[in-house]
Amino acid sequence: MKIEELVADLISDFNGSYKDFIAYVYKVFTKKIDFVSNKTIKDKYIKIRKSILHYIIANEATITAELRKKKKINNEKFFPIYKRNSISSRES
After folding, report:
1. What pLDDT score was predicted for residue 71?
2. Domain count of the chain?
3. In whole angstroms, how far apart are CA 72 and each of 20, 41, 64?
């Protein structure tokens, strides 16, 4: 799985700010690392975590935009925006 795909999957499970997302990613991988007893697999997860965090930092604008887009979509689900007729269209 590519880093971009992993980040997209992590974004889909997250709702919050960019800085909170970095902490979330770190925490998710730390839990995986702590759960595994095999040193080789631990090292693999550590490498993946490091790579993903570097990717997130290098692509801050893109990640922030995705998080905002997701937040906007979630807000629209709970608070739908109804289109109202403008004043000028009522006067016609």
Report:
1. 78
2. 1
3. 17, 37, 12
